[in-house]
Write a structure and sequence with these properties.
Blueprint: H1 8-15, E1 22-28, H2 39-56, H3 62-78, E2 87-92, E3 97-102, E4 109-113, H4 119-128, E5 131-136, E6 140-146, E7 151-154, E8 161-162, H5 170-176, H6 186-205, E9 210-214, H7 216-225, E10 234-237, H8 246-277, E11 281-283, H9 285-293, E12 297-303, E13 310-313, E14 316-319, E15 332-333, H10 336-346, E16 350-354, E17 365-369
Parallel strand pairs: 5-9, 9-10, 12-16
Antiparallel strand pairs: 1-2, 1-4, 2-3, 5-6, 6-7, 6-8, 11-17, 12-17, 13-14, 13-15
Helix pairs in contact: 2-3, 4-10, 6-7, 9-10
Length: about 375
């Protein structure tokens, strides 16, 4: 699955307690050759390591061990290397398995617990900045789920919608004197009311930035008859045929997405400046980690590709270089940034990812504090 499939409800299910052992396997992957040639070998080695962990665990009975291994084997057989992104997460119990391809790297590890490891999923979801895009015309509306580099049409909440086509009514046309304009026709207004109603339902369930694509009269009437479009962050006034492809949609949206990102970056910079002015600012991994643990962070900003391996020592974080990394050291956290992101979101903080080097003077990560 992709990160835009990680709804709040699904995340709650993943975090729910499960019969031991719930196995979580994570590893970095590569999108293109020749680097991706190593992925299959690394996965095979990691699956073997997971099997050894299961064999050596006295809490795992023979039947349960065999069932988890079987689910893991099914997952591996289903993985499509052509869809590889920056990391792979495989979750498995005796009764199920899930495969996640993430656009954010994750360390190589195997975890046995009574819940799934979700920090890498949550961080990837936050980094992806998912959005909704509604394409609308007088007789068709489709909803697309997108991130910065991918989109697909969703079939949820009643979408796609197509207006019913009624045969021409000469008597009606004679009464009103002419064939009515498409965008003054009451049937069209009623169709767009339905579009608005369905869209409000989706936004209530999964709030995201909304982009609108359609001819100016269609968007104007949707504004007039509905309530959902007022919060749209971008508009593309261009025809939206029913056969619009995800790739074509992303091409049309690119200027609006880039403009939105520039406005967003300026907004975040302003919030961090304001926090510095009132002495409610934390900069650097150690300070932000402490603020998040104390639930004092209201906003956490992280550079897009910032990752850091650390050792937790006396409640402080000490960076660990790759040369000094000891996987057996239980105090070492290879995915501390993802762990921090998940903890920040759990505490109610807003987490945003910003361009690389934009927080260089603050140690790649910063926070505006609640107090």
């Amino acid at each position: 699955m992709d990160t835009d499939a990680l709804t709040a409800g699904l995340l709650q299910e993943l975090r729910a307690a499960k019969p031991y052992p719930a196995l979580s396997l994570t590893m970095p992957t590569h999108r293109r050759a020749p680097d991706n040639a190593q992925d299959a070998i690394r996965l095979r080695n990691l699956v073997a390591a997971a099997g050894n962990r299961l064999d050596a665990d006295p809490q795992v009975g023979r039947e349960t061990r065999a069932a988890v291994k079987q689910q893991l084997d099914r997952a591996v057989a289903e993985i499509d290397p052509r869809r590889a992104l920056d990391s792979l997460v495989v979750l498995a119990t005796a009764d199920e398995y899930q495969i996640w391809q993430l656009p954010r790297t994750a360390p190589e590890r195997v975890v046995l617990s009574d819940t799934y490891l979700t920090r890498n999923l949550v961080a990837a979801k936050a980094q992806a900045r998912p959005f909704w895009a509604l394409t609308v015309s007088a007789d068709h509306a489709a909803l697309f789920s997108g991130t910065g580099d991918a989109a697909h049409e969703e079939r949820i909440g009643g979408f796609p919608l197509t207006a019913p086509h009624e045969p021409p009514n000469p008597q009606r046309e004679e009464r009103i004197g002419d064939t009515p304009s498409t965008f003054s026709d009451e049937d069209t207004r009623q169709f767009l009311r339905t579009v608005d109603e369905k869209l409000r339902g989706v936004l209530a369930t999964d709030p995201r930035p909304l982009y609108l694509v359609g001819l100016a009269p269609a968007l104007a009437m949707l504004d007039e008859v509905g309530e959902s479009t007022g919060a749209a962050v971008g508009r593309v006034t261009k025809g939206a045929p029913a056969d619009t492809t995800p790739g074509g949609l992303l091409t049309e949206l690119r200027p609006a997405l880039e403009a939105r990102q520039k406005r967003f970056a300026a907004e975040i910079e302003g919030k961090l400046d304001e926090a510095r002015g009132r002495h409610a600012f934390a900069g650097g991994l150690d300070e932000v980690w402490a603020a998040v643990r104390e639930a004092r962070a209201g906003l956490v900003a992280v550079e897009e590709h910032y990752q850091q391996t650390v050792r937790v020592a006396r409640e402080h974080l000490e960076p660990v270089s790759a040369d000094a990394l000891d996987p057996a050291d239980e105090k070492v956290r290879e995915d501390i940034v993802d762990e921090l992101v998940e903890a920040a979101l759990d505490s109610g903080a807003e987490v945003v990812f910003v361009a690389d080097d934009s927080l260089k003077e603050h140690g790649r990560i910063a926070a505006a504090l609640r107090y």
